[in-house]
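I have been asked to look over a protein record a colleague put together. This is what I was given:
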Amino acid sequence: MAIMNEFRTFVARGNVLDLAVGVIIGAAFGTITKSLTDDIIMPVIGYIFGGFDFSSYFVQLGPIPAGFAGSPTDYKALKAAGVPLFGYGEFISVVINFVILAFIVFLLVKFVNRAIAVVQEEQKNGEAPPAADPADVALLREIRDELRAARK
């Protein structure tokens, strides 16, 4: 039972929930980055370099099955047929995805750090507006004002 209580305390801290949200958003962001690379950046690179497509670069490491009806130069069809392939073109695409994702995360962190520095500077100089009263304080003030109005 002690382990369950420790686990419940660990989960209730909020860090686990923040991490879970981060993982879910990260997975969705990864999908967006993959689409950006596959559907926008790579076709533009292909157009500029005359049909250059990284995914078509591979080395066939084994025989093609006898019943294979697709093209022997189609990486995805060969892979789906179970042909052992050394797909260095796909690897290059994944590396480009990673670099784009890392750069976007870098820009995001840089923006957040800059925003935090501005807020801290404003607070240091006394320029930041005062924080709003907590809900319970506002409620107590409202009750006080109603009681004063009722006495008059």
About this structure: The two ends are 59 Å apart (CA to CA). The chain has a mean pLDDT of 79. The CA atoms of residues 121 and 127 lie 8 Å apart.
